[in-house]
Amino acid sequence: MTIDVRALATRLDVAVTTATPVAQLTDEHPLSLDEAYAVQRAGVALREARGDRQVGVKLGFTSKAKAEQMGVSDVIVGVVTEQMHVEDGAGVDVGRMVHPRIEPEVAYRLGRAVDPSDPDSDIASAVDAVAPALEIIDSRYRDFRFRLEDVVADNTSAAAFVIGPWQEPGLDLSDQAVELRVDGTPVETGSTSAILGHPDRALDAVLRMAAQHGIELPAGTILLAGAATAAVPLVAGVVVEASIAGLGTVSVTAKDGSRA
Ligand code: OOG
Ligand code: MG
Prior knowledge:
Layout: H1 5-18, H2 25-28, H3 33-49, E1 54-60, H4 64-70, E2 76-81, E3 85-86, E4 91-93, E5 101-110, E6 127-137, H5 148-153, E7 158-163, E8 177-182, E9 185-191, H6 201-213, E10 222-224, E11 232-233, E12 239-244, E13 248-255
Parallel strand pairs: 1-10, 3-7, 4-13
Antiparallel strand pairs: 1-2, 5-6, 5-10, 5-11, 6-7, 8-9, 8-12, 12-13
Helix pairs in contact: 1-3
The site of magnesium ion has 9 residues, from strand 1, strand 5 and strand 6.
């Protein structure tokens, strides 16, 4: 039996727009990884039909902390869009999400386009800036539980992201301290080394996976390398900050826009 890619993408898209969780797609019917990426692409197209656009690419499960937290071990790739972007220090509306969590990340920016289909592409030299970042993930599946194919279809739980001050690349990111704070209290600590041993390795992973899954990398693309620590639940009313030694701090305030 072939799957109805558009119908599955629509089911997940309705879960996003109504903040109503759904059952795992694989509970109903097994999905191959290729089919899961096709559902992800169709979901991004639904967002684009609403006037949204891709501004970046994210990796998931690049750290052991995340893989263990979610019981999934393969690196996955997803897309982040303009409407997911939240300014550093601004508020994010968690009232429109199912069960959001937040995690500290390293972000890279491409100063020029990189062609993933060209085997000679050099992605590292295309990076023109790096920044500390926060990612807000919000699985559209009940209880935030999924198999690998489910989370791929659900665009790797992408919901929102915040980028701190950009700086020129050059800092050695192999082992910088990472701290996630909620209302000033440290809740997760780690090191950038947790991200594939060195977050710069995420660049090659992005290039490889973008080629495999037909994702474009135009100039200006933001790359989220994956969380260095486990994610923590995000509830309205708190301020969350992530600091990465040498890179700086990024913050967001969680608000519930549905309450006055
Ligand atoms: C999937 C997304 C994982 C990361 O940084 O590892 C991810 C999830 O945990 O829901 O964004
Ligand atoms: Mg992440």
